[in-house]
């Protein structure tokens, strides 16, 4: 495959009860229970950007809060490939999938600090706290292996 992976960061944001923030994609408003309708905040990295800086920036851009601190960085870059029907269409048509650095973060604010309405073109239209164990069932099939891995590797923060 000639297309590269897009460098990306992802945030697993834990509240004091050990639940994680998941958000519903604005382009899937009727996906209440559908796999892929709910996901973790994630986004592309700028050229030369440090992943730890990028994840905090993305969290603020996507869910409107800077009230978080990094608990852990996943030791590996995790990758997924787009399915053939999305190649050349998704991710601007320039990428085969994403190479992601994931972080576990502690939420330091209150629920009112989550603001999806700050972006004029929000990626998400709803959010909620969910058990980490539910994460894999929320993922689209091509991202499920990453969410399964995160549910195991960051389980210590859900306790």
UniProtKB/TrEMBL annotation:
A motif (Nudix box) lies at residues 43-64. Its EC number is 3.6.1.-. PROSITE patterns: NUDIX (PS51462), NUDIX_BOX (PS00893). It comes from the Bacteria. GO terms for molecular function: bis(5'-adenosyl)-pentaphosphatase activity; guanosine-3',5'-bis(diphosphate) 3'-diphosphatase activity. One of its GO terms (biological process) is nucleoside phosphate metabolic process. Its cofactor is a divalent metal cation; Mg(2+). The keyword Kinase does not apply. Keywords: Hydrolase. It is an enzyme of class 3 (hydrolase). Residues 4-152 form the Nudix hydrolase domain. It holds the Pfam family NUDIX. Accelerates the degradation of transcripts by removing pyrophosphate from the 5'-end of triphosphorylated RNA, leading to a more labile monophosphorylated state that can stimulate subsequent ribonuclease cleavage. Belongs to the Nudix hydrolase family. RppH subfamily. This is RNA pyrophosphohydrolase. It comes from Roseococcus suduntuyensis.
